[in-house]
Design goal:
- Two copies of one chain form a homodimer.
- The first copy, chain A, contains 13 helices and 20 strands.
- Chain A is an alpha/beta fold.
- An eight-stranded mixed sheet of chain A has the order 3-6-2-1-9-11-12-10, sandwiched between helices.
- The radius of gyration of chain A is 23 Å and the shape is globular.
- Chain A starts with a strand and ends in an 18-residue tail after the last helix.
């Protein structure tokens, strides 16, 4: 008998019929003999409707109140799901983040989990009931204020709860069959990945793969929670995210490449004619960090000997573009650059695989594939298990397809499923 | 500087514009120098929509889950109201029933308040903020389960909070100008009552007046909380429900009659040919009480000497009719009656006034008025400050108008306002 934590996103519980379908699935798991704890997001568009209501009241609602408002969404979905399971003759009780013991810091709207003390959930499970827990929400330690966890919050709730309950597996139900070697909307021949390591999944998430958010994977890795990403619309096995690259029946060697991720959400800033003296680059990155902006890739050109000046480029989330350019422009006198170029028509391709550490020639093959496809590389960055390149945005899809084929990731038999997801 | 508890019902916060209007009113009260605590119901039809959602899932949802579902409604309205007040530059924080310290028993769907420990509300008030509290909800003492208080729950929350905070007044905002001498939809010349005692208001509520529920008035009387029933659509003074019948400037003598209430929700059961021996009536009422039914009026006819048998009639909520007739029919052999008549086409008129204690002739005047109007009286019951009569349902409106006129309650100058209200 296993203890399974299941997480269902908003699209899986969008209306009464969807809730009944999910309830049936949960009841079957329970009847099969497993203990089941379920984490659920708000129904379909509920969150957007609540945000819209708040916007009708004021353009800048206080975050504390916004969190109270938004958590109404899970309250509705979790109680309806508990009702639906009960009506199938399986006992079910729903619990808020607070009742489930999800303790967070007080950063309303993007709270971090400090601790999970799920004694009431354990009690419910011990009594034979299915426990339904509101995802995305927690409560502050001392003031008992309601918080929300931000993007991907429900996935994080599920993994955190699985860790605290020592669950055997955390199943993340979504509207795709698992993690794919590339976005099937761009690469129809993309294959579902059966197993992937935490490290690879981290790089995939950080590089733009949307099926799991970074913090959820980080949490799973830290506590060693096996995560099974699978579809709520089929019973097929999905993708297992885990530490152990091999097991009985699986190939002894990790495939070289796990997949190709892409990201269209970044922009590039080039700072032109910076004096090439020690401390200038540091000053630039201080200024950008001071504006609360996280950089991704950085390239410094070779200094032009005759002028003693150079260009520095970096990428950043496009949503931070305005803040970064404002901060840099303000400090133009002391940094001493001549001009600043902002470009949000870039795309980033990342090739990820723990196997590339021990296989030479991966980057050569990557660059050859891009070159053969006539795609220019603007920036490059690498880690032990990832190579990322920046291209023109309108060449990104071609780049992803070319690289996917070059590393033999294409499959003819796997049915491609369109990506989606709720971001909560 | 006073401490005021204000309660706004669902129709006062039905949409974003209504919420902004109410927020403006609250901000004005705060700026005028008073401390303000606000109790709010769910927006307009939210509760009905949530009930409808639950019905789509299962016809018999578990009450614990139903309570969690329904309390999402106040969560939405209270946070939006806090946002609206904040946007006017007045600090506001919203609190759930649990955060406000509303402790109840565990009777889900109709919980009773056991205690109110509003330390967080007091803190918020002391810090200069307006505290917004979710009406209608509480939390169980030991298990921290969410409960709802049932019909009129938000009014009761407001009065209970006012008592615990030692507030100067509890203002119940509604869509009428106050308590009227009769339902203005039936008697267009009904007058707004300026002051009414707890006892009179209790009798009004128990006799069908819908503006305040019985338990709310009971709570107010027990703790001596002055309740001001007024309109959220005007700034006019409404009706003050209080202990002291007089004050400076008010007339020294209480008017004889406070008002005429009516009730169309009852039914009458007549048990025909009951053996007129000791213990039979007691047995009947035992059986009915055993079915969980509360009786209202009871009439036993004079026994027919020749047969030694009699008829017993009583009124009860029409919603309990099926349960009562089933229980009685089951016990027909040991009670020994010959037949049972069920009649849900009755109406009840009640004349209420603390002054009638010291004024003889009130009942004579009442019966004369009804007789002059050609209305037959089927049952009568009286208390110190109330006379109730049962009539045919289709004669009830005429009866109310005739009695209202006979006791000089008509007014030409008061604008009649249509009754409404949300029942929560």
């Amino acid at each position: 008998m296993a203890l399974i934590v299941q997480k269902y996103g908003g699209s899986s519980v969008a209306d009464a019929d969807s809730i009944k379908r999910v309830a049936k699935r949960i009841a079957e798991a329970k009847r099969a003999g497993d203990d089941v704890v379920v984490v659920v997001s708000a129904m379909g568009d509920t969150t957007d409707e609540l945000i819209d209501l708040a916007q009708q009241i004021t353009p800048l609602p206080p975050q504390r109140e916004m969190d109270i408002l938004l958590t109404a969404g899970e309250r509705i979905s979790m109680s309806l799901l508990a009702m639906a399971i009960s009506s199938l003759g399986v006992e079910a009780q729903s619990f808020t983040g607070q009742q489930a013991g999800v303790i967070t810091d007080s950063a309303h709207g993007k709270a971090r989990i400090i601790d999970v003390t799920p004694s009431r959930i354990q009690q419910a499970v011990d009594s034979g009931a299915v426990a339904i827990v509101a995802g995305f929400q927690g409560v502050t330690q001392h003031t008992n204020d309601v918080t929300t966890l931000g993007r991907g919050g429900s996935d994080t709730t599920a993994v955190a709860l699985a860790a605290a309950l020592h669950a055997d597996v955390c199943e993340i139900y979504t509207d795709v069959d698992g993690v794919f070697t590339a976005d099937p909307r761009i690469v129809p021949s993309a294959r579902k990945i059966d197993r992937i390591t935490y490290d690879e999944m981290l790089e995939m998430a950080a590089s733009g793969a949307k099926v799991l958010v970074l913090r959820c994977v980080e949490y799973a890795r830290r506590y060693g929670v096996p995560v099974h990403v699978r579809s709520s619309f089929s019973t097929r096995t999905g993708t297992l995210v885990t530490d152990a690259p091999t097991e009985q029946g699986a190939p002894m060697e990790q495939p070289i490449i796990a997949g190709v991720a892409h990201d269209r959400s970044e922009a590039k800033i080039t700072i032109v004619d910076v004096p090439d003296v020690p401390g200038k680059a540091a000053r630039i990155f201080e200024v950008v960090a001071g504006a609360g902006v996280n950089l991704d890739m950085i390239v410094q050109n070779v200094s032009v000997a005759s002028t003693g000046r150079t260009d520095i480029s970096f990428t950043l989330p496009a949503t931070d573009g305005a803040a970064a350019t404002a901060a840099l422009t303000e400090h133009q006198p002391d940094i001493g650059f001549t001009s600043l170029q902002y470009d949000d028509t870039i795309g980033k391709l990342s090739l990820i695989g723990a196997g590339m550490k021990s296989h030479p020639g991966v980057s050569a093959r990557l660059f050859a594939a891009l070159s053969d496809a006539g795609i220019n590389i603007e920036m490059i960055s690498t880690s032990e298990i990832r190579i990322s390149v920046v291209t023109r945005a309108d060449q990104l899809d071609d780049a992803v397809r070319a690289v996917h084929t070059a590393f033999d990731l294409d499959s003819a038999d796997e049915q491609a499923v369109v990506y989606g997801g709720t971001g909560r």
